[in-house]
């Protein structure tokens, strides 16, 4: 499987701007700029997209891991915070709140750690990945 996205940038790093388009067109010429990346400007940025990708990938992987263990989650809500420092992503913090009927806390944490270690985005990131996982 291959997926494609396109970035177009026009102008200098600080004054320029660009847009991102994904194969699915979920993002279609979505704006990004210096201000949307390093300040509070309108638009998206690469780190926000990495956070969305990591949260989504982890949640889906956890659903599969739970299913293999005999559990069906009612809801998996994952926040992800990507930290960019000195030109590098230095951490990815996953914060999970989950409703999984019938699972013990120990089994839930085991499954969550498995998903953290084995989701494709976790495997692709060369950074510290932390996980806070709560059953609700």
Descriptive overview:
This protein is an alpha+beta fold. The chain folds into two domains: 5-38, no CATH class; 46-135, GMP Synthetase, Chain A, domain 3, CATH 3.30.300.20. Helices cover 35% and strands 35% of the residues. The protein has helices spanning 34-38, 46-68, 105-118, 120-124, and strands at residues 5-10, 17-22, 30-33, 75-85, 88-99, 128-135. It has a three-stranded antiparallel β-sheet with strand order 1-2-3. A hairpin with a 6-residue loop joins strand 1 and strand 2. The longest helix is centred in the middle third of the chain and has 23 residues, at 46-68. The chain is elongated, with a radius of gyration of 17 Å. The N and C termini lie far apart (35 Å).
| Strand count | 6
CATH class of the largest domain: Alpha Beta
How big a fraction of the residues is strand? 25-35%
Unreliable sequence segments: none
Overall mean pLDDT score?
97
**Biggest sheet descriptor:** 3 strands, antiparallel
Judged by helices, strands and strand pairing, the structural class is alpha+beta
CATH architecture of the largest domain: 2-Layer Sandwich
Secondary-structure element order, N to C? EEEHHEEHHE
The CATH homologous superfamily name of the largest domain equals: K homology (KH) domain
Helical residues, percent: 25-40%
Give the spatial strand order of the biggest sheet.
1-2-3
Task: Give the radius of gyration.
Answer: 17 Å
Whole-number count of domains: 2
- What is the general shape? elongated
Count of helical stretches: 4
- What separation lies between the terminal Cα atoms? 35 Å
């Amino acid at each position: 499987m291959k997926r494609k996205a396109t970035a177009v940038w026009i102008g200098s790093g600080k004054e320029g701007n660009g847009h991102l388009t994904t194969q699915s067109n979920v993002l279609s010429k979505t704006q990004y700029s210096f201000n949307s990346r390093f300040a509070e400007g309108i638009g998206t940025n690469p780190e926000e997209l990495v956070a969305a990708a990591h949260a989504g990938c982890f949640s889906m992987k956890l659903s599969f891991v739970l299913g293999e263990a005999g559990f069906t989650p009612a809801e998996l809500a994952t926040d992800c915070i990507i930290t960019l420092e000195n030109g590098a992503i230095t951490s990815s913090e996953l914060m999970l709140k989950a409703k999984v009927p019938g699972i013990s806390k120990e089994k839930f944490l085991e499954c969550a750690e498995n998903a953290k270690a084995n989701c494709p985005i976790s495997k692709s990131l060369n950074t510290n990945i932390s996980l806070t996982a709560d059953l609700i």
